[in-house]
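Q: My labmate handed me this sequence with no annotations at all. I'd like to see what the chain might look like in three dimensions before we decide whether it's worth expressing. Could you predict it?
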Amino acid sequence: MTVSYTLKVANSRFGGFSKLLFRWKGSIYKLLYKEFIVFMVLYAVLSLVYRRLLTEEQKRLYTKVAQYCNRSTDLIPMSFVLGFYVTLIVNRWWAQYTSIPLPDQLMCVISSNVHGKDERGRILRRTLIRYANLSAVLILRSISTRVLKRFPTMDHVVEAGFMTQDERKNFESLHSDFNKYWIPCVWFTNLAAQARREGRIRDDVALRLLMDELNLYRAKCSMLFHYDWISIPLVYTQVVTIAVYSFFAFCLIGRQFLEPLEPGQEGDLDMYVPLSTLLQFFFYAGWLKVAEQIINPFGEDDDDFETNKLIDRNLQVSLLSVDDMYQNLPPAVKDKYWNESTAQPPYTMATASETLKPSFLGSTFDMCMCEDAEQSQMVEASPSVPCIQTPLLSRFFAAASPAISIKNFSRGSRAHSHVWHPQTDSGFPSPYPKRSEDPELVARIKEEETEDEASRASEPTTPGSHLGHTRLPEASETQRKELLLIQVKAPSSESIGADGPEAWEP
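A: Here is what I predict for the chain of 506 residues:
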């Protein structure tokens, strides 16, 4: 029977997990105590032989052997080998559980789409769901030792009511070298087609829905069969087992108390009981036993799946759904909150404190925004912003990077981005001679440069202006704060030849 302790860990408390250490059924002590006793006995025997029976010369030789064995334990990657193996086993174990066929969806489809309150309609619904349960019993009987002990022969299956005598004769008359768990599914499809011809299933859409649910049910039966057929490769299990056993074989010799080789040399503490080695055995060997227990969860271990209980539950619930509950509905009336806009179920005194907690509306709902009004103003993006190639970014990106225009930040005031564009006809060699340029883009940039030159020609120049710098047009103090001021220093021929980035000065 599966050991469940979910209620014991429902709430986190002091020593919550420690209380689980005193359980016996399904515990690691029950799995490991025999191997643990054998390891302790062998360790004690070797310790007595070393202390009482060996001569001084033999003790020196044993000391060298023990030191070699102790160093050898570091060469076995126990954590990696066992961790990966147990993770694989646990994932496979859960996947097998989710592959167990449950008739819940199928029985709802049968109850809602196979009509008829008469005896014929009742027989059709009960027979369809019985075929589905029979298929599950046949596949579980093939992979689970518990189910096989419950139904050792087909006579027991007939006696349990999953199959009639005529169905058994039909089943045994079909000869096949393979597992025949799929035969009841074929009977299901033929009976559903017959119900469609009789009008019990009223349209093809309902029949298609019924077939789809049956295919999902049959696919889970097939998946269980393949999990039982295709195991984890034997070599992997052998490698893990040999790694664990060889590790502790070295520990039996290498972890013994050793007398110092030299008379004046200080020896280790004489621990008659090697606590650290025993804990290491408990962890690593216990890890291996966990994998051994759940590698096939259809056995008879404490934590294996309760397949017989699942069979009983599935048959009882499915027959109740398609027979007693067919069109057996309570009256449809107005609910309690019919005239209320917001339904609020009551709380008990034990849970009344939960009403004081605010509802979760999102992680940014209580975020404090900046009080500056300028930071909250909307800025329209100009779709006609020209794009140029920046040498620094073009080393990493093949596409041209977008140039930033001051028009996006001017809030309505007219301004231009003063960006220097290298040209091959101005005496400077182009750093990208093989890169093609867009003619429309070049024309647009030249047009903006022409406007800038005309505006600068109409203004007086200062005598201390530096060559290669641009002078911004006169503007008010508020506009100067709003504008993004960018000045570009003309690169030297050495920086262009080395394909280096331009020097930007604020």
